[in-house]
Structure formats: C-alpha cells, structure tokens
Amino acid sequence: YLSPQFTEMWGYAVEEFMHQSFAPLIHPDDMPIAIDSIQALFGTGDRQTEIELRTFHKDGTLFWITCSNIPVKNDQGQVIGWQGTARDITERKAFEEAQSRLTAILDATTDFVGISNTDGEQLYMNPAGHRLLEIPPDLEIVGRPLDAHIPERAKTIVLEEGIPTAIREGSWQGETALLTHTGREVPVSQVIIAHQDADGDVEYLSTIVRDITVQKQTEVALQQKAEELEQTLGELQRTQ
Predict the structure, then answer these.
(1) Are 174 and 162 in contact (CB under 8 A)?
(2) pLDDT tens across 38-61, in order?
(3) How many CB atoms are located within 10 Å of the residue 166 CB?
(4) Suppose 61 and one of 31, 57, 156, 197 were both cysteines; which one would form an S-S bond, judging by CB atoms 3.0 to 4.6 Å apart?
C-alpha cells in the first residue's frame, strides 16, 4: 500500500511504483542508514523513529525525509513487515545548514558577538567574546545579566542611550567599555541591533564589539606628541 501523498512527495503514480523497491529512491550514501534501520527493526521488533535520509524525486531532484517505521507482526510475534511514514524535511535541513554556516562564521570572527533577550539576560556569546572578557571555560554565561561585564561609567551609555536607540531606530553604534572577568576595563567600539518579530515587537538584542585598546593607545600617543610639538613651537617663538 502507498498513500496518495507518495505521489506528491516523489512524483511517481501509486500504480506505477506499487510492488517496487524503495532502494532506487534513496541516495547511495544514505543506503547503509536505511538498511541498518530495517535490520534493527526486524531484529528487535522495536519501532524506528526520526530516520533522516536523502531521497530522489522522479525528476532527479534530491530532498530530505524523516521516517518512522512500525513493525507488523504475526500471531507468534514475529516481524513480517513494517508500516512506514515519511515527512519532507528539506526546508528544515536547509535552515540547519544555514545555521551551521552562521555558527562557523561567529566562531571564527575575532569580534565579540553576543545575544541577549529583552529582559537583559545573555543568551549567547561567541569564543571571541569569551577571550575578550577572560571568561573561564567552566563559567556558564547563559542567563547572566547583560550588564555584568559593563563598567559603571559605560552603563549610562549602553543602557540609557545604546539599547533605547537600537529599539527605537533598529541599531546604535558608539564607543563604550567592557569589564573583564578579572576586573580589567577594555575600551571598545560597539554596535547594538534590535531584532523584531513579524509584528514589529523586539524579540532579542545582538551586539558586535571590537577591542580598540591599541587605537586608544595610539590616540593618546598622538595627543602627547601634539602637545609636545605645541610646547616646542611655543618655546621656539619665545626664543625668537
């Protein structure tokens, strides 16, 4: 038996595919998964669920399915067949792959990337953020308050200017500072972004932070040189 949905998913008419093997529909690389699951079903008599496979449509296109197989037993309890159901999960797999690529990018970037909810609780921090804030590997950041690593002088900028502006206008950019786990203050350039749902309500906030310690040190050095030059010129003018 094949339900009418078989035609919708694979493109073959039910009459055309009746009494045929499913093997040609399965991607060769996923065939071992299919074989192992059926052998386990006949060997144990236990139901099989969430078996993910790549399969071919009649037109040759490839799509993902998840399968559940229920054993059919005779009066002696022996497995003599199975009833299977399949669901197209191509969109979900595409989303998972996109999410995996994004995670790889976030893990590789040298900029601190963080996410928090609207209650001010941290939800995510990439490896660069952990390094910048000198957070121990065993310290869980999920659920910690957003301002836990913001020095007092920068809280006014972030909490009273940055976040409200991002919520109102979509994003905010400016110079603030962070406080490492060891208490060291780090000057940073920060972008805060407010992410909205379909109804326009803010769901969560994200931030991209870059350490500008070297830049600030350079600015101080240039300022000192400028002051020294101005003093030298003043002395020269007095001498003249």
Answers:
(1) yes
(2) 899 988 989 888 999 999 999 999
(3) 21
(4) 57
Pairing label, strands 202-211, 112-117:
antiparallel
Burial degree of 112 (CB within 10 A; 0-12, 13-18, 19+):
buried
Q: Which of these, 84, 56, 87, lies nearest to 69 by C-alpha position?
A: 84
Distance from C-alpha of 79 to C-alpha of 40, rounded to nearest angstrom:
11
- Strand segments, DSSP code E, in 163-201 are 171-179, 185-196
Q: Which pLDDT band holds residue 172 (cuts at 50, 70, 90)? A: very high
CA 27 to CA 61: how far, in whole Å?
11
Q: What sign does the dihedral 58-59-61-63 (CA atoms) show?
A: negative
Q: Spell out the alpha helix ranges (H) of the chain.
A: 5-10, 14-17, 31-44, 90-108, 127-132, 152-155, 163-169, 213-239
Give bridge partners of residue 81 from the DSSP assignment. 72
Please give the Cα distance from 107 to 20 (Å, whole number): 47
Burial of 69 (0-12, 13-18, 19+ CB in 10 A): buried
